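Researcher: Re-running this chain for the archive, since the previous output was lost when a drive failed. Same request as before.
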Amino acid sequence: MTTTVIGVVIALHYLTKLSNILLFWLAFIFTPPSEIYLTKPVKDGGLSLPKDYASAIAFILLAVVLFFSVRKEKKVRHLIE
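Model: Regenerated structure tokens:
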């Protein structure tokens, strides 16, 4: 479920003109549930990763989204100028 929501946020970023700040906060809000999924026991549908690993994965995913967001914004600004 969380992966779907993050995927929708990424799609909205590339397919709409919604505010990057709004999209960032939407992605940020759904990051903790993804950590819960990553740390949940396998028998409960999670991946049973240590909390440090789950936090690192969540941070990396958020950093990737922000990287591409900034990259796209720089491209648009370059085209405007």
